């Protein structure tokens, strides 16, 4: 079990400079995401990605974000970057997730876009393949890339999920709304990109620190509440 699977992971995605990565590490982020989708404003070239990964290694889990990557390419990326996780943010089927995992030996964080209650039925087929599910907003119809658009979805849709199901929540989270999102959706972790930026692809060190602080406090309050309800506090 990785650190992220054992705790309430807070992930800062789309980091692309040593300074903003340092801010995420100093704030106590558990996971940092590097985006390998060329159409993204957060895309990092392999050389820079390797340097950022070296900076983060041992301090936070490194997540390589890909979109519909072929297993052989994923194996090359895994060899180059030695990440702790692959985030699969395209339309990868459960079989594709299995093939990518077999080629890389890495755990998979599979992103699923949620807009309506019917979308929740897409979770179950990944039970035997993805190591963690990330429930995200769907991208705008004409989007050039499939994530990181800063759009929230209706968190109340998740209230009926089995409390034992561990998932990460993302989509339009920011320092001001993350506490409410955690109270409503009761996720096992959170992920942010746009909400800690001043412009697409430009991370803001103060917003990163505020986000981690707010998410950590809300996760602690959620945990206290669950212990209280279970009669353990
Ligand atoms: O961030 C991107 O540019 C990106 C490109 C292609 C696929 C996914 C991408 N981002 C995903 C994320 O950053 C997060 O996992 C998540 O969707 C949160 O994004 P945001 O709503 O911007 O906080």
UniProtKB/TrEMBL annotation:
Biological pathway: Amino-acid biosynthesis; L-tryptophan biosynthesis; L-tryptophan from chorismate: step 3/5
InterPro entries: Aldolase_TIM, PRAI_dom, RibuloseP-bd_barrel, TrpF_fam
A Pfam family assignment: PRAI
Keyword presence, Zinc: no
NCBIfam families, per database record: PRK01222.1-1
Gene transcribed to yield this protein: trpF
EC code: 5.3.1.24
Name listed for the protein in its UniProt record: N-(5'-phosphoribosyl)anthranilate isomerase
């Amino acid at each position: 079990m990785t650190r992220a699977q054992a705790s309430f992971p807070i992930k800062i995605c789309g980091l692309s400079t040593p300074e903003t990565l340092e801010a995420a590490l100093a704030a106590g982020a558990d996971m940092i995401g590097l985006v390998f989708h060329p159409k993204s404003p957060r895309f990092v070239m392999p050389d820079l990605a390797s340097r950022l990964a070296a900076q983060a290694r041992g301090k936070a889990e490194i997540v390589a974000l890909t979109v519909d990557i072929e297993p052989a390419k994923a194996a090359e990326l895994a060899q180059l970057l030695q990440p702790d996780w692959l985030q699969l943010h395209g339309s990868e089927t459960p079989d594709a997730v299995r093939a990518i995992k077999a080629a890389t030996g890495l755990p998979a964080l599979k992103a699923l876009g949620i807009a309506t209650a019917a979308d929740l039925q897409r979770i179950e087929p990944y039970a035997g393949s993805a190591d963690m599910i990330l429930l995200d907003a769907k991208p705008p119809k004409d989007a050039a890339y499939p994530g990181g658009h800063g759009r929230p979805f209706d968190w109340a849709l998740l209230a009926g999920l089995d409390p034992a199901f561990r998932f990460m929540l993302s989509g339009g989270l920011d320092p001001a709304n993350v506490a409410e999102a955690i109270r409503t959706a009761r996720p096992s972790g959170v992920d942010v990109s746009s909400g800690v930026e001043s412009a697409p692809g430009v991370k803001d060190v103060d917003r990163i620190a505020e986000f981690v602080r707010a998410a950590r406090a809300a996760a602690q309050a959620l945990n206290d509440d669950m212990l209280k309800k279970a009669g353990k506090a």
